[in-house]
Amino acid sequence: MHSYINIRSPLLRSTILPLSLRRYITPRYTPTAVASLSISIPDSELSARGFSINYSTTNLNPSALNDVFASVGFPRRDTARLNLALSHSSGSLVWLSRTTDPTKPVAFARATGDGVFNAVVWDVVVDPSYQGIGLGKAVMERVIADLREKGIVNIALYAEPRVISFYRPLGFIPDPDGIKGMVYSRRNLQKKKR
């Protein structure tokens, strides 16, 4: 579902998703849109539904996160490197767990960036058992709100075509200036050397 954004990322399938399938999208915010940015499922409702909201990697089981990545088609990541990547997610990080299993994520999203102007959202995933009940939206709204509170105005992500419609209601659109995202590819360089 929404977990198909891999920006390595979005879920950043940059190393496994062909360039022709990637789309660079960025949110379009006006002062009014930012002021009206709200959380559709309040913390109290998530809690009443048996979910805990987490804003740090404390208690996050990286192996369980890898399981969620694999369940949505993302590649498993080396645990040590995944821990390092998570420690660099200073932009924003939000994950949900069941209150009965507080170290196992059921929804996850993170962003990295320069902390001032720009951020990129990565690894938006929802365990397939929990898709379709608003958890992807819940983590994304909180990541966006956190970034906006920090004054970050340029928030980007890469999305597979089939999930672009998930991001549109959150304020993301194809870049209005027609800018296309590009990914460094060693594979293309190797082809040119032949």
Automatic annotation (TrEMBL):
<dbReference type="Pfam" id="PF00583">
    <property type="entry name" value="Acetyltransf_1"/>
</dbReference>
<dbReference type="InterPro" id="IPR045039">
    <property type="entry name" value="NSI-like"/>
</dbReference>
<dbReference type="InterPro" id="IPR000182">
    <property type="entry name" value="GNAT_dom"/>
</dbReference>
<keyword id="KW-0808">Transferase</keyword>
<feature type="domain" description="N-acetyltransferase">
    <location>
        <begin position="55"/>
        <end position="190"/>
    </location>
</feature>
<protein>
    <recommendedName>
        <fullName>N-acetyltransferase domain-containing protein</fullName>
    </recommendedName>
</protein>
<dbReference type="InterPro" id="IPR016181">
    <property type="entry name" value="Acyl_CoA_acyltransferase"/>
</dbReference>
<dbReference type="GO" id="GO:0008080">
    <property type="term" value="F:N-acetyltransferase activity"/>
</dbReference>
<dbReference type="GO" id="GO:0005737">
    <property type="term" value="C:cytoplasm"/>
</dbReference>
<keyword id="KW-0012">Acyltransferase</keyword>
